[in-house]
Amino acid sequence: MIKQILIDLSGTLHIENQAIPGAVEALKRLAQQNLKIKFVTNTTKESKRILHDRLTNLGFTVNKNDILSSLGACRNLIEKNNLKPMLMIAPDALEDFEGLACPRNETPNAVVIGLAPTEFNYARLNEAFRYLQNGAQLIAIHAGKYYKSSDGMSLGPGCFVKGLEYSAQCSATLVGKPNKLFFQSALDEDVKPAEAIMIGDDVTDDVKGAMDAGLRGYLVKTGKYREGDESKISPAPTAVFSSFVEAADKIIEQLTQKTVYCT
């Protein structure tokens, strides 16, 4: 039985300011089914407000409260542990961390890294390295290898996280996908992992992460997908589709067949 669908955003529904062809209509069709739909994203370049505005402008009908962002999960972690972090976060995402940055007259006890190209320079990375050497905790909002942008593939924050781990001889706490708790926290209380499907373009963070958490993992061949990605994990993805459109139509078909069978 399928009760809930988790959907990745960047690379699955859209690439920057361009919707995946047919995705707007496919989401509308899926939303007409008796399903709970949530959107789970590792996007750290922009706040939830900016992300929601982007989706709305592209024509998607998305409730802001149905977006589960790794930024939000990270904020919860910071507040829960009363941390005073150095924030290596993109300017457009800082509003999600309002009031949390370490005061200028104090020393950070955590370093938080998101996808922040403006922060990945020697001076800032060296500053973070020194805090970590002195015992600060390293928190990675996610550790993606790369992502799809309008001008091609671009480096994700993962290589910078790994570099700091190596040099400071520490291990990062990973907040977003593929963390099991991130997927499980996205499910409604009455939904078991086996009753949910994750749809995404990242075979490791989206699909394997979801399957490790007990969900079904649907891989789509858009965004960061590269030929042969489905062979890079074991077990293999639950299913592979050309795009979100095909995945959505397959789910609707399965639900329709189930309804016919039950009656």
Notable traits:
Rossmann fold, four-stranded parallel sheet, 2 domains, 263 residues, alpha/beta, six-stranded parallel sheet, 8 helices, cytoplasm
If you had to describe this structure to a student in words, what would you say it looks like?
The chain has eight helices and 14 strands. Helices cover 34% and strands 20% of the residues. The mean pLDDT is 94. By secondary structure, it is of the alpha/beta class. The strands form four sheets. The protein has a six-stranded parallel sheet with strand order 5-4-1-12-13-14. The chain has a four-stranded parallel sheet with strand order 6-7-8-11, with helices on one face. It has a two-stranded antiparallel ribbon with strand order 2-3. The chain has two domains: 4-42 and 177-261, 3-Layer(aba) Sandwich (Rossmann fold); 83-174, Rossmann fold, CATH 3.40.50. Belongs to the HAD-like hydrolase superfamily. Keywords: Cytoplasm, Hydrolase, Magnesium, Metal-binding, Nucleus.
Query: Architecture of the largest domain, CATH level 2?
Result: 3-Layer(aba) Sandwich
Fraction of residues in helices?
Answer: 25-40%
Rounded radius of gyration (Å): 19 Å
The share of residues in extended strands comes to 15-25%
Question: How many DSSP-defined strands?
Answer: 14
How many helices? 8
The CATH superfamily of the largest domain is known as: HAD superfamily/HAD-like
Strand order in space, largest sheet: 5-4-1-12-13-14
Low-confidence stretches: none
CATH fold call of the largest domain: Rossmann fold
| Main pleated sheet | 6 strands, parallel
Shape: elongated
**CATH class term of the largest domain:** Alpha Beta
Mean pLDDT comes to 94
**Run of helices and strands:** EEEHEHEHEEHEEEHEHEHEEH
Gap between N and C termini = 15 Å
Into how many domains do the coordinates divide? 2
Structural class: alpha/beta
